[in-house]
Amino acid sequence: SVLADQISAGEVVERPASVVKELVENAIDAGSTQIDIAVEDAGLKQITVIDNGNGIPADEVELAFLRHATSKITKRQDLFQVVTLGFRGEALPSIVSVADVTMQTAIRDQPGTWIHVKGGKILAKKTAESRQGTKVTVNDLFFNTPARLKYLSSVQTELAAITDIVDRLALSHTQIAFSLTSNGRELLHTAGNGNLKQVISAIYGINAARQMVSFAKEDNDFKVSGFVSLPKLTRASRNYVSFLLNGRYVKNNRLSRALIAGYGSKLMVGRYPLAVIEIKLDPLLVDVNVHPTKQEVKISKEDQLCELLSASVYQRIAQENL
Ligand code: ADP
Ligand code: MG
After folding, report:
1. Cα–Cα distance for residue pair 186/257, rounded to 1 Å
2. Global pTM?
3. Beta-strand runs (E) in 221-262
4. Looking at the predicted structure, is the pLDDT value of residue 83 above 60?
5. Alpha helices of 205-322 — where are they, by DSSP H?
């Protein structure tokens, strides 16, 4: 029902940035190599995501807007080894329940579909020629949930949240060319050539990227690698630390503390490194199904991982003889 979708929307769609996240994750799951994102007024007026992925077959388009209509879990085991980003089939129904949405989508060599859904109701649907891929346009987000609108922060804060999400998705998918435009101004552009350092440079600037050093270390269970800033190049905010767990951006306070511990006494109090850390592990050691937005994860053998991370960073920084 539309009501159930609105309730679920409260969990999945807190703010414009959550819509951007869900739409871009769908584009990633569809195998896209190019994803272009545009927002107007921090997404409150409009969010557009264009991808060149698989597209949705004409006879499945309506289904995609129904609750729990995920096409991504085929066997029970998949729930325990989630490889795709989305797997609940809640995002699209939630978004269309609180916005005015159009989607144009086509699979290869088939006529495409154009559909208009507002407040959970399908208003129009027709065949429309288009190239393979999907374009979703979300207008007037939260038009029917004014309470939600009231809780949003300033336009700058909401735009910062969108930038943050897109940055992290670009960092975790270096093979995809991303662009992000806000009110016609380009904020990010990545090449999609698989080069993590180039993506870091596009996000944090050439100078910051130049001053970061790479490291890599592994044990029987984990492989950690990435780029960290030297102690002199630090920030006043912890927002500049990203963890990519099997290619997925995650939040984990213990890992952040372990990273900082790796700097020992070289990091000034209240300062944070700039770091992008990739962690590879057996998917069975991760439980991603902790929260609908899937950023918080539980990791088995977390102590061991934290020690490995601290030790690798410590050793790498010691090498610089500061
Ligand atoms: P989930 O991602 O959890 O499966 P969503 O509600 O986000 O659920 O999407 C529903 C379904 O719509 C997806 O399973 C997928 O089949 C289809 N879909 C959504 N967006 C796209 C896209 N950009 N390209 C191809 N298919 C898409
Ligand atoms: Mg999804």
Report:
1. 34
2. 0.87
3. 222-229, 241-245, 248-250
4. no
5. 206-210, 253-262, 302-319
The residue assigned the tokens 């080894």 is 81
Chosen CATH of 211-319 out of 3.30.230.10, 3.30.300.30, 3.30.2350.10, 3.40.50.300: 3.30.230.10
113 lines ligand 1 (CB under 6 A): no
Q: For residues 196 and 178, give the distance between their C-alpha atoms in angstroms, rounded to a whole number.
A: 13
Number of Cβ within 10 Å of residue 59's Cβ equals 8
Q: What ligand is nearest to the CA atom of residue 66?
A: 1
9-29 tens-digit pLDDT: 666 788 999 999 999 999 999
CA distance 191 to 259: 29
Residues, the chain, total? 322
Which residue type, as a one-letter code, is found at position 305? L
Q: Name the fold adopted by 2-189.
A: Heat Shock Protein 90 (3.30.565)
Distance 87 CA to ligand 2 centre (A): 6
Pocket test for ligand 1, best of 12, 52, 70, 96 (most atoms within 8 A of CB): 70
Distance, CA of 191 to CA of 204 (rounded, Å): 15
DSSP 118-129: ETTEEEEEEEE-
The answer to whether the complex's ipTM is over 0.90 is yes
